[in-house]
Amino acid sequence: MGKWSPEYKQLSSAVGVSMVGVVLGVVIAFPALALDAWRLEGDITLSEVEAGWFVSVAQTVSVAGSIAGGYLNDVLGPRRLLLAVLPLLASTWPVLLGCVHNLPLLLTVRVLQGLLCSAATASVYIYPCEVTEARRRGAVGVLPDAAFSLGFMLTYFLAAILHWSTVVAILPLFFLPCVVTVFLVPESPSWLLQRGRVEEARAILQQLRAPDVNVEKELLGMGPLGECGEASVARQPRLLLPILASIFLMVLKEATGQIVVVLFVVHIFRKVDVGILPHVSSMLVGSARLAANVACSLLVGRLPRRTLLISASLTASVTIAVLGDYFFRQDSQVWPDWVPLACLSVFVVAYGAGIGPVTCLMATELLPGAVRGLGSGLAGSALNASQFTLTFAATQAGSGFYICLWSYAAGSACLAAFALLLPETRNKSLRQIEEYWAEVSENITGKRWCPCARRRAPDDCEANAKSNTRNNDTELVRTV
After folding, report:
1. What does the alpha-carbon distance between residue 153 and residue 8 come to, in Å, rounded to a whole number?
2. Cα angle for residues 368, 216, 237 (degrees, 5° grid)
């Protein structure tokens, strides 16, 4: 790696960790492969309730797994956390293959997979944003979502060409390149700086930045604003507000119903006749989402984040509402047979080109460095709770599935409205975004918050709040 340019090292590190999302995507989408195969073969029979638990139990435990993952990301760093989780996750597949006829053991394995997958997810989204400079953060920051889409697509493809047991047997091999890649990348300089390891952070930044980049200035921007790392989140609105914004953003992302589309796309195409085999239709939809993710990597650097998110959310709302009306009027045959394929394709394009990548990117960007791991964990926990609710409801909907689809249309519209309340993060450094939340908290409370205390600053301290912040920054400059 010594002869590689700094820009290449930077991008290869971010892309390498992002691609871990491929194997995590396979873990999430596996029920779509398994349930369809088991229904056709009849060898493994599950009732509707049992199938619902098999689909949604991973999301249930991920509520706790995401919080644990966020905490461990702050303690261990994203690189070491992934190195610990990935081998364990790979080892669960042989166990799953041996217990498919034992429902309690089968659900136990899915519980373990859900915990490990959710613990790793936060690091997959955080690391690329922390190692990439601001001008490239948009294009690189959407890669994790593209990697998850590729994982979903890979699941559909493997289901079409291989027996489900063969897929399970070979899946551990997909984890090996991920472990090697993560082992070779450097630790996040932002995490190192938050842990007080300034010299290591500087050395890594010098490896990842061009010679004309002011590394000392970037180090200063990565440092905590005041002493937020030691302050109580509950007493710091400038920390609490972005965490709440990130949580709401991820909940509304799931309110679009994308996880139901991922897990039930084959089942949907078995319920309607679109003139194409269900697995082929599923791969077409998966390909559309993946292509949209690639397009988003180009669009996100040229368009404001909020504009892209709002337009994609409104498009998704209209198409999923039409799909709901198709199922509502299915017996009367008002809509032509190609409508489900067209609606799902447009929906996943809207999701892949805007909703998924942009929400995940902004949810990470909005969080201050000192609580980025904690905030990502809480947002991921809320996301998984939403996924559990949606997937379990979908398995029990039966003929009323159109009601679920209409609720997803409403969720997409709410996401568009919420995006109007968020700050634009395009071409802004992480420090500038953190300062935005400090200003918002001052406007809400009417008082400045003293960086050296864990309580609201007294009146005689308000006049010197900016001076205190400058002194903290100066001290960090001396340190670096």
Report:
1. 27
2. 15
Are 128 and 144 a contacting pair, CB within 8 Å?
yes
Whether residue 202 has pLDDT greater than 60 = yes
pLDDT (mean) for 109-136: 88
Copy the structure tokens of residue 223.
């440092």
C-alpha 293/C-alpha 142 separation (Å) is 7
* Six-digit token string for 45: 């029979």
381 vs 367: CA distance, rounded Å: 15
Residues above pLDDT 70, as percent of the chain:
85
Judged against a pLDDT cut of 80, whether residue 59 lies above it is answered with no
Cβ-based neighbour number of residue 252 at 10 Å:
23
A 10 A CB-CB count for 109 gives 20
Distance separating alpha carbons of residues 406 and 318, to the nearest angstrom: 10
What sign does the CA torsion over 153, 159, 162, 167 have?
positive
d(CA 237, CA 232): 10
Listed as own residue / partner, the contacts of 36-41 with beta carbons closer than 8 Å and 24 or more positions apart are 36/159, 36/266, 36/267, 36/270, 36/278, 37/159, 37/163, 37/164, 38/164
Q: Compute the distance between CA of residue 232 and CA of residue 103 in angstroms, rounded to an integer.
A: 44
**pTM for the full predicted model:** 0.70
